[in-house]
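Homework help board

Subject: predicted structure for assignment chain

Our instructor gave us this sequence and asked us to write out the predicted structure in token form, then describe one feature. I got the tokens but I'm not sure how to describe them. Can anyone check?
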Amino acid sequence: MRRASAATAIALVATLAASAPAAASIFGTLFAGQRPAALGTRDGRLTPCPDCPNCVSSQAADARHAIAPLAFRGEPAAAQAALATAIRAMPGHLLAAEQPGYLHAEFASAIMGFVDDAEFAVDGQSQVIHVRSAARLGYSDFGVNRRRIETLRATFAAMNP
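My token output:
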């Protein structure tokens, strides 16, 4: 009897893992947290990371939070459009804001529905896109935000060589 119960539980978890919308409908509101009020840019800078390891930013001075911005060639608007396409290809995404020079994406984890906020500010003069990605809840994200930005970097670089 225990084998059947374990097999059923494994099948349920596999189904939820394969279906982010289904998982979000079950857990999304429980672990999503509230959208931070301090999103966006101020004087060309994204909000600094809090004093916990669940955030990375290309504008951070400390090694714990620092990550390189996304480099691009060509027109800033084309680079932003390519980045938006790369974001849309990622699992669990919601492109929450898309304005000239700025993107805000929310990424929900597949099973529990934890939401991270990722922001992107285009600096056309320097030909980089500054990034900030932070978990809404908890202290540590176990490197999830850093890995997500590096995955986006690789996808974006392939689209904007």
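Reply (TA_rk): Your tokens look well-formed. For the description, you could write something like this. DSSP finds four helices and eight strands in the chain. That's the kind of observation they're looking for.
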